[in-house]
Amino acid sequence: MSKYDEMKKIRDELLVFKASPLFEYRVANKFFPVVGEGGHDATIMFVGEAPGLNEAKTGKPFCGAAGKFLTELVGSIGLTREQVYITNIVKDRPPENRDPTPEEIALYAPFLDRQVKIIQPKVIATLGRHSMGYVMKRYDLDLELEPISKIHGRSFETVYFDDNNQPQPLTIVTLYHPAAALYDGSMRGTLKKDFEVLKKFV
Hints:
It is a single chain. By secondary structure, this protein is of the alpha/beta class. It is 41% helix and 16% strand. It contains nine helices and six strands. The chain has helices at 3-15, 23-28, 53-58, 65-76, 102-119, 129-138, 148-151, 180-183, 187-195; strands at 37-38, 44-48, 85-88, 123-127, 154-161, 167-175. A six-stranded mixed beta sheet has the order 1-3-2-4-6-5, with helices on both faces. Helix 1 (3-15) runs antiparallel to helix 5. The radius of gyration is 16 Å and the shape is globular.
């Protein structure tokens, strides 16, 4: 199966993902699951937390104000959104933009794991503490985990196992969520500086 077909399969499964406590809320509001978008051969994969209202209405990740800033940050390292892959752990919007629950993260995480195997990125850049927490634990970096205020802008070397169960090198880069800059303007500079860590992978 092509990468496109494998991603489509994930989308089709998410459309009828009744096991999720967010399913009925999505259907009642005529929202879409947000699978992700960008290059299926991308070197860098960005992983946020969960879709917001604009994302759920359009099915596109990071398409609101935080998304605009993310596009700017991606541009600052010389790439376009089409050249990276952008997704979230949780693929459906939690009500009132609340944080995803541990149960929701556990339910949706296997879809993200499959996306990593499809794209085979060299770097996963986490956006926000929920994404950071899941990704670092998933790829055996539990012992490195600290509050995001301490480890933002850092990179960690690990591996993931491909479909043939072969270890592949993987770098995890921990970043603040772009929305942080919407609430606190001083964070824009911090995020721009942290993004420079990604330049060596471009």
